[in-house]
Design brief:
Blueprint lengths: L4 H8 L1 H7 L7 H15 L5 H11 L7 E6 L2 H9 L2 E5 L6 H10 L7 E5 L5 H9 L4 E3 L6 H14 L5 E4 L16 H9 L5 E9 L5 H10 L5 H11 L5 E7 L3 E2 L8 H18 L1 E2 L1 H8 L3 E2 L1 H17 L3 E2 L4 H14 L3 E3 L5 E3 L2 H9 L2 H4 L9
Parallel strand pairs: 1-7, 2-5, 2-6, 3-4, 3-5, 9-11
Antiparallel strand pairs: 6-7, 6-8, 10-13, 12-13
């Protein structure tokens, strides 16, 4: 049996103790071995002074290429003074694991533990996540009752000691669009039933996503590459890569009034959080240009189409990071040309070079430009 305090607390929880009494076609000993095995997998240690120091060696490799801009940091500052906080974000890039915690650290806000896909826990990165950042490895799409009861109990105990950050979409979007919400971790936090805990929604957005070409290719092929190969490709695409990263915090959402035992309430809260994140998402010039593009288009027409899109976005109460079509084309068009996504010929006509990557950026605004059935819920 594992000896740490969280493990002992998890094993003592009612749902886990019930599972440990056997059943499910296994003996009590087999059930205990299964639970403790999953606990050993989930167990993590956060050594934040080391994590904070990591941004210095990482600076010349990655962080110097990114201008980080944080919006409404007073929200988590106030929320953490009052009690426990659950940060729920969209998920654009592997850089999110650096950008969002540093947004908190730069502003003197206590660090959360981050939930990450178990595929990120191999090799050196896995050692970093498990023994420094305090990230929790999550198995996605599993229906193993032993794992689910262990995960929910572990999250409940973790929240007694730490704030938590996780991604409402589960994984990154290969198509660029904001995906439907996943409810597993949200349900686990609801079942913890801690007094005073609040959700702080946040959105992360980049002018250029480091993995844009990789994600667009995976979205087309509907397949995921091995993580090691993806890291190698990311290093290649990092050459001459520069971008802004916006981390935007939103008004805290209370769990009061949502019944964790009601599937309808869990889904209602999940969609409320997801829609809130969608409005917080920073609308940047590259996305506007991508949404306005045609296979071939002159600058004046592209600027006019960008103005039309921005008018719709303004009506949607979007978080605009660009004022007009001319600004969008000047800034976003140049970045997409430098990235090899667009080509501007001698006459000033814009032509598409990487169609799937362009679609990836255009779809980042899809949740703001299309009204779902039944109208908007926000």
């Amino acid at each position: 049996m594992l000896a740490d305090d969280i493990t002992q607390a998890v094993l003592a929880r009612k749902d886990v103790a019930k599972y440990l009494r056997g059943g499910h076609g296994q003996s009590e000993l087999e059930a205990r071995e299964r639970i403790t095995g999953y606990l050993d997998e989930l167990r993590t240690t956060q050594r934040y002074p080391i994590y904070r120091a990591l941004k210095h060696p990482l600076y010349p490799i990655i962080l110097r290429k990114i201008q980080r801009i944080d919006e409404h940091v007073e929200i988590p500052q106030q929320a953490t003074r009052k009690g426990r906080v659950i940060y729920i974000s969209n998920h654009k890039s592997h850089l999110d694991y650096l950008v969002e915690p540093l947004a908190l650290d730069d502003n003197g806000i206590r660090p959360p533990v981050t939930a990450a896909g178990i595929n990120l826990f191999g090799g050196a990165l896995g050692v970093l996540h498990r023994h420094v950042t305090g990230a929790v490895p999550i198995r996605r799409n599993t229906k193993d009752p032993a794992y689910l009861v262990t995960l929910k109990a572990y999250i409940a105990e973790l929240l007694q000691r730490h704030d938590l950050l996780f991604y409402i979409e589960g994984g990154r979007s290969y198509t660029g669009e904001l995906k439907a919400p996943k409810t597993g971790l949200l349900h686990a936090t609801m079942q913890a039933q801690l007094d005073g805990v609040v959700i702080v929604p946040l959105a992360v957005a980049y002018d250029l996503v480091l993995e844009d070409h990789i994600l667009a290719r995976q979205g087309t092929k509907r397949g995921q590459r091995p993580f090691r190969r993806e890291v190698a490709e990311m290093v290649r695409y990092a050459v001459r890569y520069e971008s802004r990263a916006f981390t935007t915090f939103g008004t805290p959402i209370s769990l009061t009034g949502y019944d964790p035992d009601s599937r309808r309430d869990v889904m209602a809260l999940a969609h409320h959080v997801r829609d809130t994140i969608g409005l917080l998402y920073k609308v940047l010039p590259t996305a506007v240009v991508a949404a306005a593009m045609r296979p071939s288009i002159v600058r004046r027409e592209l600027e006019a189409r960008a103005d039309e899109i921005l008018a719709i976005l303004k009506d949607s109460r979007a978080n605009l990071g660009v004022r007009n079509g001319r600004e969008a084309v000047e800034s976003g068009g140049a970045m997409l040309e430098e990235r090899g996504v667009l080509h501007v010929d001698r006459t000033g006509r814009f032509r598409v070079r990487e169609r799937n990557v362009l679609r990836y950026y255009a779809r980042t605004l899809q949740h703001l430009l299309s009204v779902p059935r039944g109208g908007r819920t926000h």
